[in-house]
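Researcher: Next sequence.
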Amino acid sequence: MGTNAWRKLPVSLTELCLDTTLRCGQSFRWRKVEDTWSCALHGRILSLRQDATHLYYQASFSERLVEPLTRPLSAPGSKIDSLPEDDDTEALVHHYLNLKPDLTKLYEQWSSVDANFKKKAPRFAGVRILKQDAWEALVGFICSSNNNIIRISQMMEKLCSHYGPLLGYIGTTPYHDMPSPISLADPKVESQLRQLGFGYRAKYLYQTAVQICHGHDDGWLENLRNPESPIMGQKVAAAGEMQPGGRAGYRVAHEELLALQGVGPKVADCVCLMGLGWGEAVPVDTHVWQIAQRDYKFGKGKHSSLTKATYDAVGDRFRSLWGKEAGWAHSVLFTADLRVFSERLPAKIEVDTVKVEAESLGPDAAATSAPVIGTKIEITATKIKREFLEDEGHDGSVYSKTVSRGKRRKKI
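Model: Next structure:
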């Protein structure tokens, strides 16, 4: 087998923006070289790129690619080869990128009930919630504890390169798929992961793998999935009525995940949202808590700190606003606050004018015997505080410039 030709799907940037969706802290294994994203996924190396009107994809099943992947045919009217009969890459692209929902309509719906979303969303169109494997989401978000996106991505790469199957190369870069739970359930894994720099997360990953392999029936994790968002190839089924705290299946999945090592409420909600398809899951970390305080009037009275009750109240508030896809809408606002996307938002300009008394403004001042008023104008441009994941510091870049001007009061 070799590398398939580039193929294309009609997808606009408002319906999917790869550069935003693949960088906003959902998945941590995608690599970008020039304008192409690649990842080892479901037994192949999948590469994606896009222009204003189309999404291009290419799959490689070869053991080794000596040459880089060819560039896509982007000119109008270019011939796109048909897929082999046994190649399900197009179905995988549709499924993984969650292309079925009409994102424009969802943005309109969320904007109609939330002025803050309406203000932020236009600069962050095309953010989709990926349909990842639940196991990959679980591992990735256990690694996210007290961590940032770059370091999480590095950990995932180490995990895959040491324990995952090698699928092939792009140029000289190897691509490994995710290791299975059984690959991480060996007693030697914890010490090996510590040597690789995983710290206390090494214990959580090993113990969680053991719990899944030996403490639950086969398929337990996938059985927590939202039946409205099944794995690829399975039929959609009803998921029950929406409640203020989410549908019953979501609440069961969240509670079950909390029994795993290294999984607290936020990690459980991340897995529910991005690995199990429960759209109402709203992960609340210190960063989202800041959004809730700044934009949604939390932070006072009984919700002055991020307690369990406040965590639930923030999720309930967002679910009451945005419904059963509250986690998706929340992720757009989370993305809008990521430091990596700070250039998309304008700086906040504050102007403060202060009158001050001055003795003189130079040699001419004495001749008039008139009081002098100085006008001090302080202009401060403040970039909104951006993403930090737990241990990464704030980046509220602030600069100020003060201009003093004097003017002479006329004699009366």
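Model: The mean pLDDT is 82. Strands lie at 7-10, 31-33, 36-41, 44-50, 54-60, 166-170, 173-176, 348-358, 372-382, 398-408.
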